[in-house]
Amino acid sequence: MPPMSDAPEAVFTPLSDSHNPWRMSVAPMLDWTDRHCRFFHRLLSRHVLLYTEMVNAGAIVHGGTERHLRFNAEEHPVALQLGGSDRDLLTQAARLGAQWGYNEINLNCGCPSERVQRGAFGACLMQEPALVADCVKAMVDVVSVPVTVKHRIGIDKDESYSFVRDFIGTVAEAGCNVFIVHARNAWLKGLSPKENRDIPPLRYGVVAQLKQDFPQLTIAINGGLNTDEAVQAQLALVDGVMVGREAYHNPWWLTRWDALYYGAPQNTLTREAIEATMVDYMAREAAQYGTPWPHIARHMLGLRHGLRGARLWRQVWSDHRLKDLPAHQVLALATQTYAD
């Protein structure tokens, strides 16, 4: 069965500069894009840029280096997203990230949660562009990989274009050449993080205008993009597209991306082959680190999204009563259930 999409088959002309790392990426998503999720996504696309969850710079520096930075070699290209506003901590964390082999260091200036604000980072940093620039400059000085920023287009109900334009202008002067722009305002009070992903209106035109005003910079867009048609429309205006929840819930979509957006061969692996590879990975993780297979299986529950029998298949892989069985036995049960 072909990958699911609302758009026609292969009607898009890939970018000739297909080495652009930010052409397509999967967004950093807290509690979702851990290394197991990224291993899974890499099976679906060889070229998409993958991001870690946001990691507190202080947690990396103060004793949690291996726990927070360990990743699988198969994940490349992979970017480390940092949260923080302390220049020294960010500098140390960025240096460690580069030493561990991450391909990019990204600073989070977009998360609107009040818990993150209490740590003085996330979207509230957009109100302090000079501080962000100082932190970026410090990180640029100690790593050879790109230092990038992910941010919103505004704060609370201020929808003035000059706010985000001046933010980018200030931070770019510090050596940041890549900005991933979530095309919504961040409301710092009165909305939950979930509501902040839906309620402030998307304003894609703001991001397109940023690209016109900063043609020398790489501008990628994020927010609400969930079809090939929508992605292609944005790639005609900006340099890259970052996809979040749709990539997680409907991961089979990623199998189209190498051909559509990188001019590379389309992924020919079947869902069954990808599931089998994930189960081998579960066994490897259990042997090396004692990782319970449910911690990994939860990320692939969307693999059969939209297919007949998918619900019963998901029920097997999410059945806590099976958690003590080896993953290969659970695979056999899931396969039989799906076949029936």
Automatic annotation (TrEMBL):
One Pfam family recorded for the sequence: Dus
Main enzyme class: oxidoreductase
InterPro entries: Aldolase_TIM, DUS-like_FMN-bd, DUS_fam, DusA, tRNA_hU_synthase_CS
Positions bearing the site annotation: Interacts with tRNA: N108, K194, R197, R311, R314
Keyword Oxidoreductase in record: yes
Spans through the membrane: none
EC number: 1.3.1.91
GO molecular function terms listed in the Swiss-Prot or TrEMBL record: flavin adenine dinucleotide binding; FMN binding; tRNA binding; tRNA-dihydrouridine20 synthase activity; tRNA-dihydrouridine20a synthase activity
Gene3D superfamilies for this protein: 1.20.120.1460, Aldolase class I
SUPFAM superfamilies from the UniProt entry: FMN-linked oxidoreductases (SSF51395)
PROSITE patterns assigned to the protein according to its UniProt record, in alphabetical order: UPF0034
Residues holding FMN: P28, M29, L30, Q81, K150, H182, N222, G223, G224, G244, R245
Active-site residues from the entry: C111
Stretches assigned to coiled coil: none
Domain DUS-like FMN-binding: 26-323
Necessary cofactors: FMN
Keyword Flavoprotein part of the UniProt annotation: yes
Keywords, sorted A to Z: Flavoprotein, FMN, NADP, Nucleotide-binding, Oxidoreductase, RNA-binding, tRNA processing, tRNA-binding
Known catalytic reactions: 5,6-dihydrouridine(20a) in tRNA + NAD(+) = uridine(20a) in tRNA + NADH + H(+); 5,6-dihydrouridine(20) in tRNA + NADP(+) = uridine(20) in tRNA + NADPH + H(+); 5,6-dihydrouridine(20a) in tRNA + NADP(+) = uridine(20a) in tRNA + NADPH + H(+); 5,6-dihydrouridine(20) in tRNA + NAD(+) = uridine(20) in tRNA + NADH + H(+)
Task of the protein: Catalyzes the synthesis of 5,6-dihydrouridine (D), a modified base found in the D-loop of most tRNAs, via the reduction of the C5-C6 double bond in target uridines. Specifically modifies U20 and U20a in tRNAs.
Alphabetical list of HAMAP family matching this protein: DusA_subfam
The protein's name in its UniProt record: tRNA-dihydrouridine(20/20a) synthase
Organism, as annotated: Simplicispira metamorpha
Lineage of source species: Bacteria, Pseudomonadati, Pseudomonadota, Betaproteobacteria, Burkholderiales
Name of the gene encoding the protein in the UniProt record: dusA
